[in-house]
Amino acid sequence: MPDSSPSAKFVFGQKESLGEIFMPKIEVDEKRCKACELCIVACPHQVISLSKSFSPTGYHPACMVKPEACTGCMLCAFVCPDVAIEVYK
Ligand code: SF4
Ligand code: SF4
Question: Is the beta carbon of 26 within 6 A of some atom in ligand 1?
Fold first, then answer.
Protein backbone atom coordinates (compact mmCIF):
# COMPACT_ATOMS: atom_id res chain seq x y z
CA MET A 1 0.00 0.00 0.00
CA PRO A 2 1.72 3.24 -1.11
CA ASP A 3 2.13 6.13 1.29
CA SER A 4 0.10 8.84 -0.42
CA SER A 5 0.68 11.65 2.08
CA PRO A 6 1.67 14.91 0.33
CA SER A 7 5.06 15.08 2.04
CA ALA A 8 6.07 11.55 1.10
CA LYS A 9 8.96 11.45 -1.34
CA PHE A 10 10.11 7.88 -0.90
CA VAL A 11 7.52 5.16 -1.19
CA PHE A 12 8.43 1.69 -0.02
CA GLY A 13 7.20 -1.38 -1.81
CA GLN A 14 6.38 0.25 -5.15
CA LYS A 15 8.93 -1.47 -7.33
CA GLU A 16 8.50 -1.65 -11.06
CA SER A 17 9.49 -5.04 -12.36
CA LEU A 18 11.59 -5.43 -15.51
CA GLY A 19 11.97 -9.16 -15.58
CA GLU A 20 13.72 -9.77 -12.27
CA ILE A 21 15.33 -6.31 -12.15
CA PHE A 22 13.66 -3.58 -10.12
CA MET A 23 14.14 -0.13 -11.61
CA PRO A 24 13.94 3.01 -9.50
CA LYS A 25 11.78 5.76 -10.92
CA ILE A 26 10.33 9.15 -10.13
CA GLU A 27 6.86 10.52 -10.57
CA VAL A 28 6.24 14.24 -10.96
CA ASP A 29 2.99 15.76 -9.77
CA GLU A 30 2.33 18.10 -12.69
CA LYS A 31 -0.13 20.16 -10.67
CA ARG A 32 2.65 21.06 -8.21
CA CYS A 33 5.60 21.49 -10.59
CA LYS A 34 6.54 25.11 -11.38
CA ALA A 35 9.27 24.20 -13.90
CA CYS A 36 12.05 25.77 -11.80
CA GLU A 37 14.51 23.15 -13.15
CA LEU A 38 16.21 22.59 -9.79
CA CYS A 39 15.65 18.86 -10.09
CA ILE A 40 17.25 18.87 -13.53
CA VAL A 41 20.39 20.51 -12.16
CA ALA A 42 20.45 18.22 -9.12
CA CYS A 43 20.14 14.92 -10.96
CA PRO A 44 23.64 13.43 -11.39
CA HIS A 45 22.52 11.25 -14.30
CA GLN A 46 20.57 13.70 -16.51
CA VAL A 47 17.38 11.72 -16.03
CA ILE A 48 15.06 14.73 -15.96
CA SER A 49 14.09 17.40 -18.45
CA LEU A 50 11.13 19.68 -18.99
CA SER A 51 8.21 18.30 -20.93
CA LYS A 52 7.23 19.93 -24.22
CA SER A 53 3.59 19.75 -23.18
CA PHE A 54 1.85 22.05 -20.72
CA SER A 55 0.67 21.10 -17.27
CA PRO A 56 -2.83 22.01 -16.04
CA THR A 57 -1.25 25.03 -14.37
CA GLY A 58 0.44 26.27 -17.55
CA TYR A 59 4.04 25.14 -16.99
CA HIS A 60 6.25 22.72 -18.88
CA PRO A 61 6.59 20.20 -16.05
CA ALA A 62 9.61 18.06 -15.25
CA CYS A 63 9.60 14.54 -16.67
CA MET A 64 11.91 11.57 -17.02
CA VAL A 65 13.81 11.52 -20.32
CA LYS A 66 16.40 8.86 -19.40
CA PRO A 67 14.54 6.58 -17.00
CA GLU A 68 17.03 3.75 -17.34
CA ALA A 69 19.68 5.94 -15.68
CA CYS A 70 17.74 6.67 -12.49
CA THR A 71 19.40 5.27 -9.38
CA GLY A 72 16.70 6.36 -6.94
CA CYS A 73 19.16 8.65 -5.15
CA MET A 74 16.34 11.08 -4.27
CA LEU A 75 18.38 14.25 -4.88
CA CYS A 76 15.69 15.57 -7.20
CA ALA A 77 13.00 15.11 -4.55
CA PHE A 78 15.13 16.77 -1.87
CA VAL A 79 15.69 19.93 -3.90
CA CYS A 80 12.16 20.35 -5.24
CA PRO A 81 10.65 23.36 -3.47
CA ASP A 82 7.14 22.30 -4.43
CA VAL A 83 7.30 18.70 -3.17
CA ALA A 84 6.34 17.59 -6.65
CA ILE A 85 8.55 14.50 -6.92
CA GLU A 86 8.07 11.06 -5.48
CA VAL A 87 10.83 8.46 -5.78
CA TYR A 88 9.95 4.80 -6.09
CA LYS A 89 12.62 2.23 -5.39
S1 SF4 B 1 16.25 9.81 -8.02
FE2 SF4 B 1 18.37 10.54 -8.42
S3 SF4 B 1 18.92 9.59 -10.38
FE4 SF4 B 1 16.67 9.41 -10.20
S5 SF4 B 1 15.87 11.23 -11.27
FE6 SF4 B 1 16.09 11.80 -9.10
S7 SF4 B 1 18.15 12.74 -8.92
FE8 SF4 B 1 18.07 11.61 -10.86
S1 SF4 C 1 12.31 20.96 -8.78
FE2 SF4 C 1 10.10 20.49 -8.54
S3 SF4 C 1 9.07 22.35 -9.23
FE4 SF4 C 1 11.18 22.48 -9.97
S5 SF4 C 1 11.09 21.61 -12.05
FE6 SF4 C 1 11.63 19.93 -10.65
S7 SF4 C 1 9.65 18.95 -10.13
FE8 SF4 C 1 9.21 20.97 -11.00
Answer: yes
Domain-embedded: residue 45 = yes
Question: Amino acid identity, residue 26?
Answer: I
Range of the structural domain that residue 44 is part of: 11-88
pTM over 0.85: no
Q: What angle do CA 82, 10, 63 make, to 5 degrees?
A: 55
Structural domain total, the chain: 1
Per the domain annotation, does 2 fall within a domain? no
Q: Is the CB of 75 under 6 A from ligand 1?
A: yes
Residue of 23, 47, 87 to mutate, ligand 1, most atoms within 8 A of C-beta: 47
- Per-residue model confidence (pLDDT) at position 22: 84
Q: Is residue 6 part of a domain?
A: no
- How far apart are the C-alpha atoms of 57 and 40, rounded to whole Å? 20
The answer to whether residue 3 is domain-embedded is: no
